[in-house]
Amino acid sequence: MQLEKIISISGKPGLFKLVSQLKNGFIIEDITTKKKVSIGNSSQVSLLDNIAMFTFETEVPLFNVFETVAKDTNYKETLSHKSSDAELKDFMAKALPNYDVNRVYVSDIKKVAQWYNILQKAGYITPESFVKAEENAVEEPILEDKTEAKPASKKATKPAAPKVKESTQAAKSAPKSTHRKQG
What we know:
This protein is of the alpha+beta class. Among the domains are: 6-48, Roll (SH3 type barrels), CATH 2.30.30.730; 51-129, Orthogonal Bundle (Arc Repressor Mutant, subunit A). The chain has helices at 62-72, 85-95, 106-121, 131-157, 160-173, 175-182, and strands spanning 6-9, 16-22, 25-30, 36-40, 45-47, 52-54, 59-61. It is globular. The model is unreliable at 138-183 (pLDDT under 50).
């Protein structure tokens, strides 16, 4: 499933696919009606690919939550986002057993259920759509190795910080002389 071009727009119901970029905005396509419209740069857009759910240990990408729901429902529709709060919390506990109940609100769970059902109706939820995620998971450790190397280089720059503090302290003792030059 390619979530990288699927977006949610604040104030507009449904989900949209980014088609192309304009000088002052974007052309989007409603994933259910396939109707194309343009939106301005001032629209508040959220890429589903960038959304994650809080757990007590880490953040889980929305894609992984959708995959769990898809396997539990045999790639069919799940419960309605208009279900009771208790039903929605049970749904979330099955989809993400260790979700952070203090940071994931019922309104967030409603969006997950609603977006999953929209994607399922539009044909984005299929067994084949999740194969790509497993291939990407193989590539992720390579990316993690690169990110692990970056903190080491950041640590190398940290010793320079005391030198900056020393020069700041020297500058604090020098204001008398600089004050006289300005006066």
